[in-house]
Amino acid sequence: MARYSPGPFTAGDLIDRFGGQLLHGERSLALSRLAPLESAAPGELSFLSAARHRRDGEATRASLVIVSVALVDALPAPTARIVTPDPYAYYAAVSRWLASRQQPAEPAQRVHPSALIDPSASVDPTAIIGPGCVIEADSVVGAGARIGAQVVIGEGARVGADTRLFARVVIYPDCEIGRRGIVHAGTVIGADGFGFAREAHGWAKIAQLGRVIVGDDVEIGANCTLDRGALDDTVIGNGCKLDNQIQVGHNVRIGEHTAIAGCVGIAGSAVIGARCMIGGGAGILGHLSICDDAVISAMSLVTRSISRPGLHTGVFPLMPNADWERAAVTLKHLPALRDRIRRLEQRLPIDAADSPAPVPGVDAPSNDPKESS
Amino acid sequence: MARYSPGPFTAGDLIDRFGGQLLHGERSLALSRLAPLESAAPGELSFLSAARHRRDGEATRASLVIVSVALVDALPAPTARIVTPDPYAYYAAVSRWLASRQQPAEPAQRVHPSALIDPSASVDPTAIIGPGCVIEADSVVGAGARIGAQVVIGEGARVGADTRLFARVVIYPDCEIGRRGIVHAGTVIGADGFGFAREAHGWAKIAQLGRVIVGDDVEIGANCTLDRGALDDTVIGNGCKLDNQIQVGHNVRIGEHTAIAGCVGIAGSAVIGARCMIGGGAGILGHLSICDDAVISAMSLVTRSISRPGLHTGVFPLMPNADWERAAVTLKHLPALRDRIRRLEQRLPIDAADSPAPVPGVDAPSNDPKESS
Amino acid sequence: MARYSPGPFTAGDLIDRFGGQLLHGERSLALSRLAPLESAAPGELSFLSAARHRRDGEATRASLVIVSVALVDALPAPTARIVTPDPYAYYAAVSRWLASRQQPAEPAQRVHPSALIDPSASVDPTAIIGPGCVIEADSVVGAGARIGAQVVIGEGARVGADTRLFARVVIYPDCEIGRRGIVHAGTVIGADGFGFAREAHGWAKIAQLGRVIVGDDVEIGANCTLDRGALDDTVIGNGCKLDNQIQVGHNVRIGEHTAIAGCVGIAGSAVIGARCMIGGGAGILGHLSICDDAVISAMSLVTRSISRPGLHTGVFPLMPNADWERAAVTLKHLPALRDRIRRLEQRLPIDAADSPAPVPGVDAPSNDPKESS
């Protein structure tokens, strides 16, 4: 069984499928698996895509390395190589091909006998439905979809063609995911958004009547939670890539090809543009808007709309704890320190030649953080 | 099938159930669904509850708007309206009513044939048990409870009347949730609290012998984890509302009607008061106490007990990354900057008329962060 | 049925199993359960392990207290006591013994009839397999393992002897967990690491061909996600203890006996040493290395390698929101304030006797945060 070992392949297999120029090696060169440069053994394939890995390239024992023209001299002379413009993308394509060779064969029965499928559900005959699945009334599972063990697809939900749901994914009623998607185990799509109205003593629930609509070519990691909208829908654009443990609040809208690292929390009604990158553990408050191509650093909190692309950061620097205690205590008195500087400046003899130019926003500081940045 | 579309209803339906004064419209006015002001189409219902949405009100095409007296002039003149003191609460009530109209009919069999129920479990005949559930010995499921697909209710656990558990919720043995609760998919109640004793080489497990006790009218989001206590119980008060991905450590106690946004982490033995609001991604260290009516900002870390109600914040402000690098590097030297200011003050000529009043806590700074605030 | 109440036991039971010196009480002293000092009732057992709990000891009504020589006088005179060098470890051992007495009896059938086990899977005859489990081809479940309800063990995965998996754990193909492990409900081991290559318009998936390898004596909390490696494996060392909701990125390596509190996120290829302690909600960026015995405070972000053991912190201190707004606004201007201090120092009359010694790193500040700490 081809497990963890995709089975032997050759240099010729690679250039036939993925192109590139083969040098210092024959098409028949046999390879067993992909490995990192620094740990690859003879008979294994690797790739060199960044200048900072030169040294790993020079020392590699891999039998064949995917490399760009610029770094082709960073390999041992006898090492076979495939020269290609974008070695990282080439590696990505090879990885997907090797993964497909490791896929378990399609099961004898496309629909596992233990799956519970409502008669009114529409499950394409080419879909694969795993053990213990629950597929509720009026739901739709598209052609070539692969539904893992114990997945729950709620009433009226729709799973697009060629989409893969891993074990235990839960899709609440009426939610939709498009084509060629991947959703990893434990993710919940369509639970109620967090909506409550204040009462005299406590909170009254606001039923969440919207849905979650996930586009095509979206990958969502494990144990994520994407909430259904209050009235309108929560929308994830085509091509988005979400890591694990991400929380997407109700009525969030995320643009195409945005990538979000693990543990990010996005509050309700935030709108995120296309091609953004959100670092791990970052937070995004609600009812704001982030422009296209913005990049948010890990564990940074976005509290206001961002209209400029580029990298934004808000993180307290890490330091030895004793230093941190001193810095933290002084931080609380920062406004008072600024006042003391101002008073010192007022008390020094004034000389036009050397009085510092007033610093905007500092010499007449406002206490409104919203005016800054 | 009434899916995503609650079926037609009329203005009369609303005032009969929820009160208010109907103006500029007839009882027979037909409505199809609730929608936001800015996107509502003719035939749809909306609400206007905040002055900041005036403009949306003025432009709305909704056929009927729930509104307060104060904002009644913010609607187009011909628009039908229901005038009521609290439009937001009215909207919340309407949403719950519409949701109930969309509910799937009760299944033919209250207990799905694939559910595994121990003979000693006590399941009320009015409870609905979904496919694949595992209900263990001596557990109790109350009247009108709705247990979703694949829920696991452990030995001796108790689920109160009218409580709803969505798919895949896991309740560990002996834990209890009260009446009229809602727990969303993937949440785990009663896993072991994180308790270990240091050994010479490593950690010895401390078995967690307590339970989790959740009160009445509590709503818990998806993929939350509430740990059982070490000896005593972990307790969630009546009326609490928890969003998704929240971690509640062992022996935490949370007071009534406290609302907690997504991704919050609460460490063991923290005590949180009633009617608190904890912002998304915030952290609360253990063995401390937060008073009633406190509000914690998103992604802020509570490190000491809080005895004053009101809003508390501890977040590094977001800025363009180049600015952040400069601010972060200077932050480490903040105590040294304070010392330089002090030395400057000492070196200036002293004039009683203009020497600044000593600033408490700054002019005789302590290095003990615990003395501040 | 011994539920939440481990059944009566005696002082003699304890000293026979766990040692210690029994004073002021007979072997036959009957006890019903463990309780905290402050709430223990007569007939209950408690422990006193830290000087800060003296007062609780003096006031306790517990019938028997586990205590050290140093604190033996902190108990009421007539209270029976077991004197032992490490009361906390003694308590831990007693807790585990009491928990084992509460364990449900082994089920009549070791393998639940509803479990789906591939014929090629190797399940030890002494293993217990719960309802609804899915155990795929070529996987291995070791002697004495206890697999909870609805667990999914993927193709080729291996679960070691005496390891316990609670409900709904998902182990992806080829991943391994060693012996005597505990994995709490909802955890996902082996989902794809977050790997994508930039394309002209969007992201190309990098298949994750590595695995997750978890050592012996590891405990992992609920709803954690441990990602499989891209090429090499993600590795968790023997004796590690992980709390809930932790995200471990692909190719992370964690050394032995490291303890990680809830909600921590660890990015890909981070290497963490042995015996580290990572506080709740902390973040660790990728491709860095943390030495043995390092301690990271809660909600702190590690952005660079750490080579010194000891406590590291990076958290914005919590303060009343009005204070925070002022501090946050001034923070953005911190570099400008530093410049103003420097200009003041330049303008003051220079007197060698009192000019401050240059402060390293401050008087010639660099704008490179990487030079600090």
In short:
The structure is a homotrimer of 373-residue chains. The first copy, chain A, is α/β, with parallel strands linked by helices. Chain A is built from five helices and 39 strands.
Fold topology:
The structure is a homotrimer of 373-residue chains.
Chain A: E1 9-10, H1 11-18, E2 21-23, E3 30-31, E4 33-34, E5 44-48, H2 54-59, E6 64-67, E7 80-83, H3 87-102, E8 116-117, E9 122-123, E10 128-129, E11 134-135, E12 140-141, E13 146-147, E14 152-153, E15 158-159, E16 164-165, E17 170-171, E18 176-177, E19 182-183, E20 188-192, E21 196-199, E22 202-205, E23 212-214, E24 219-220, E25 225-228, E26 234-236, E27 241-242, E28 247-248, E29 253-254, E30 259-260, E31 265-266, E32 271-272, E33 277-278, E34 283-284, E35 289-290, E36 294-296, E37 301-302, E38 310-313, E39 319-320, H4 321-331, H5 334-347
Parallel strand pairs in A: 4-5, 5-6, 6-7, 8-11, 9-12, 10-13, 11-14, 12-15, 13-16, 14-17, 15-18, 16-19, 17-20, 18-23, 19-24, 20-25, 23-26, 24-27, 25-28, 26-29, 27-30, 28-31, 29-32, 30-33, 31-34, 32-35, 33-36, 34-37, 36-38
Antiparallel strand pairs in A: 1-3, 2-7, 21-22
Can you offer a commentary on this structure?
Three copies of one chain form a homotrimer. The first copy, chain A, has 373 residues and is an alpha/beta fold. The first copy, chain A, has three domains: 9-100, MurE/MurF, N-terminal domain (Udp-n-acetylmuramoylalanyl-d-glutamate--2,6- Diaminopimelate Ligase, Chain: A, domain 1, 3-Layer(aba) Sandwich), CATH 3.40.1390.10; 116-312, UDP N-Acetylglucosamine Acyltransferase, domain 1; 321-350, no CATH class. In chain A, strands 8-11-14-17-20-25-28-31-34-37 form a ten-stranded parallel beta sheet, with no helix packed on it. In chain A, strand 21 (196-199) and strand 22 (202-205) form a beta hairpin. The termini of chain A are far apart. Chains A and B meet through strand 20, strand 21, strand 22, strand 37 and strand 38 of A and helix 3, strand 38, helix 4 and helix 5 of B.
